[in-house]
Each structure stands twice: as C-alpha cells, then as structure tokens.
C-alpha cells in the first residue's frame, strides 16, 4: 500500500468572529454584511410570504384552507343558504298569488330534500368508493385506487389514500421479493452442502480435506447470508445506533485493507488472493468524523465487490480526500473490472441485485449474496451521506460522501 499526498491542501473555511457568521440576535447577515431584520421576517411569516415575495408557511394558511371555495364546510353553508332562499321565495310567491301556505311548505320541503340528497350523494360517493377499496386491500389486493379529482377535503383524502395504497403495494411487493430471494439464496448452499454430505455418506467420495473444505465454504456462505439478513433486519427496525467520532483516515483504512487481505488468505481457495489492494489518502494526516464500525462495513463490502469483479492480477484502489465541510470525507473504491452499465447505476444498491456484469470467478466462488452493496448504502444513509456509481474510463468507481459531524443522523 502506498500513500499519495498533494503538495498543498486547501483547508475548509471556518467562520470566525470576523466572518459572516450569525449575529448575536440570530439575524443572518446579508450580502452587504448588514444584519437581517427579525421584524421583517416576523411580518413575512404572518402574511405567508418571504422577503423575496415567495409563498411561505404562515399562520394564515390554516384559515385560508378552511375557507377555500370548494370545501365541505362551504358546500354545507351553501345548502343552508339555498334552502332558506327557496323557502323565502316560495313564501313571497304565496303571498302574491294567494296560494295556500301548506302547499308552499310542501314544495319548500321537497326542494330542500332534493338539494340535500344531491349534496349528500356527492359527499358519500367517494367515501363508499374508499370503503370498497379498503375492503379489497384487507383481502390482499393493493392495486385498488380511488378517483382523486375533487377539490375539497375528500379530494385530499383520496390523494392520501392512493399514496397509502401505493406504499402498501410497494411494501407487499418487496416482502414477496425478499421471501423469494432469501429462499433462493438459502436453497443454493443448502443443496450444495447436502450433495457433498450425501456423497460422503454413500461412499462416492472420501471425507478428505478437499471435500470438507467444500462443505465449509457452503456453510460460510450461509453464515454470511444470515449475518447480512440480520443487519437488514436491524435497519428495518431502526435499532442500529450511530456512534460517530473523529478518527484518522490513513491508519483506519490501512487496518481495513489489512483485515481484508488476511480474510482472503485465511479463506484460501475460496477467495481471491491475486488482486492487489492500494490505498491513497490525501493529505496523509486527514481526519474525518463517522461511526468507524459502520464505515468498516461500507469499505469492506465495497472492497469485496471490487475484488470479485477484478481481472486476474488486477488492482483495487481505495482513495480518500477531505470533503467540503469540516471533518467530512470523500471515499472512492476503483477496480479494473468490466464496470457497471449506466442503466444499472441506481439499481446496483438494491437488495439481492448482483447486476449484469459477471464476476471473475477464478478460484473464488459463489458470487456473493447480493446484499453487500445494499448494506453499504444503508450505512451511508445512516450517516446522512451519499453513495453512488460515478463515471470511470475503466472498471467501476463507487464514491462515498460523508457529511462530517454537523449532519449526522441519530
């Protein structure tokens, strides 16, 4: 491993007492260095607009929403007003035409009932539609949707209902895919292990070191799959704490690469040992802030993925440099393999997605569980960072951006 350090490193700017930091009263300085006005901001919040005239959430938004022209409250008020006007009009007609008052009363009641029935039907029809869709979803049909063209509260409810139905449909689809993928992943090593043991029991092959090594490899594959599934389970349940602290990048990444090399040597013929690992940290005294245990998961999974797709005698480069914010980190892992098609750049981090690029099998083995990059994305998201595939003239380059201390998620 070698270290490359530039001749000069541009340090991130920190606002000091003389910088353009916030004033004591919390008003941010403007472009000319003057402090902003808190009173102006308060006034803008009251009328729902910002300083630039753009709409802002204000205290009058609720009142405006409650009095919008197509709300249910407006429709009910209209029903009452129209009923009173109809009754008043019929009474005036009765006095001018000397019609009996009871006849006018009957016509007034009939007109009010018809108007009430019309408005009641328009209000209850979407509720009946949502009830039918809810019953269908209770029976497992998450494809049902309701019409959402209204401009009142029921229209808002229909939009929220459709969004909930789409989320439930996605969760159900992911659950089915997870069960199918896990079943497939468990079945493959179990079938291979069963075949080896049956051959030993039937006397087809001797229980020599090579046979037992094959069985051990399948057992280790099962162990990795179970470990990855436990990590994803903790992710889904939200029980993984984040213990972020400052650390020196060079010695930390050096230890991670040494661990990866020792694991490959211990695995022997079941792992790639012909790929060279290279480390480049700039500057050499770089310090970052992150959860070192979770970052170890990210780097080890990225290295494992890069090694599997590297050609014989290839090289995997792990590079690190400072980000824009204090204690932030830009980390890249580059291999010399076939790379990832641009159409798969977003899907490569999905669970059980191995991509279309074949791994360089050589002496290695199983092609992985398809969960390593998904766990890497989870650990990066936990930090509030970003992981992505970036363009590279050769091989695959995956970049990890960690925000530093200020934006870490708890």
From TrEMBL:
The keyword Magnesium is assigned to this record: no
Question: What's a Pfam family in this record?
Answer: HATPase_c
Q: Provide the leader sequence positions.
A: none
Positions with biased composition (Basic and acidic residues): 12-26
Q: Does the keyword Transmembrane helix apply?
A: yes
UniProt-listed Enzyme Commission number(s): 2.7.13.3
Which part of the chain is the Histidine kinase domain? 181-406
One MF term in GO for this entry? ATP binding
The chain positions of domain HAMP read 121-173
Q: Which residues form a coiled coil?
A: none
Q: Where is the composition biased (Low complexity)?
A: 27-42
Which residue ranges run through the membrane? Answer: 76-95, 101-120
Show the segment(s) annotated as Disordered: 1-60
Instruction: Report the subcellular localization.
Output: Cell membrane
Name used for this protein in its record: histidine kinase
Q: Whose protein is this, by species?
A: Streptomyces thermolineatus
